[in-house]
Predict the 3D structure of the following.
Amino acid sequence: MDLQQQYELEKLFKTKLHQAMRFYLETCTHCGLCVDSCHVYNSMPELRYTAVGRSEVVRKIFIKYFKMQGKIAPWLGETMEMDEFVLDKFYEAAFSCTGCRRCMVHCPFGIDTQQIMSIAKLLLVGADKEPKILSMLSDMSINKGEQVEESRAQYAEAIKNIEPEVEAIWPTPPGKKTIPLEVEHADVLYVALSGKHSIISAAAIFNAADINWTLSSFEAVNFGAFLGDPQRTKKIGNRIIAEATRLKVKTVAIVECGTAFRIMKQQFGKLPFEVVTFVELIAKYHQEGKIKLNKVMTEKVTYHDPCQIARNAGVYEAPRYILNQLSDDFVDMIPNREENWCCGGGGGLVAAGDFEFRMKSSKVKADQMKKTGATVVATACENCHSQLHDVCGYYNTNQHVEFISHLAAQGLAK
Ligand code: SF4
Ligand code: SF4
């Protein structure tokens, strides 16, 4: 690596050095209290998979380039020179961390390893060493935002084709569209994913509740966040903000996608609309008497708290409330809520990670799910759903994974 590239990466590192980040980098006492909190370490006990172990190389670079000690006494052993070896270490640390922040809960100083890993990810982007699948998917989302007008008619046609599947679950109220598009002043703008499964159940629930809603032209997932590229993250989120602002909607409901929800809720400052995750709306509609749910579930069901919806955004009770309307046999995983084990697929690992690593690092999750005795694992995040589906197969847990919205749509009653 030449001096110019080192200098460019140092500049990028500096953009991340806000007050909280300096605290995270300067405060670790190596007490080791976070070691057992990481699902990766618990499933594959190697020090490089601990929170403190992952952060070491980032800390050494921080000391070398931004602290007096690194400038005058680099031989003390707590520094490293920015080079290709360091970038490889960054990759290994950042893309084996799901950003679940369970370690943060157990650190006495609240050190956020996910934030420290965001430095590693940003420098990988700067060095053109990021997982290419994530930058490609991010760029596709950005391009779609720029060309949305050209594809609008095609999108409307595709949406029309899935309306019969919505009608099969719940008849559309008279005078309303089954899947409305481009409705100004709608109460809710629903932002789905690219698959129709993320639209059908939600549309049936909105129609059963007789809500004035409209479907977004964009998919919610923010690959820029998985990539750790703040600029792409912003561009992807801004497409939805511009749409919601143009349509003057009151609420933006994000599909069951943890990262999309948390990023929109927490990283775009004050917005002219409310941001909720769709499961919150299902619970609300039921509590307000807008929908009724039957106890249609005959199998024992448990719930996986998605890290970005639960621990990192505080939505714990709405999904449990819905499951308890649908079943008399709900059981919580142990531990749960803030302490729940990550599914093992966050942080972009489902799209970009190595399958064997994803499975092996989720052994603790498989054990936790099996112990519940449930045959249905419900969740409220697409990423968790994909990962847990794979984990169930890999560890033969004899369980199947379901979205809360899908279960709720099946339970809709007159
Ligand atoms: S954020 Fe999650 S995956 Fe990353 S080190 Fe902490 S506990 Fe492990
Ligand atoms: S618990 Fe906090 S202070 Fe202790 S080793 Fe982990 S990150 Fe460092």
In short: The domain at 134-287 is CATH 3.40.50 (Rossmann fold). Residues 37-38, 40, 51, 54, 97-103, 113-114, 342 surround iron/sulfur cluster (ligand 1) (CB under 6 Å). The longest helix spans residues 148-167. The first strand starts at residue 188 and ends at 191.
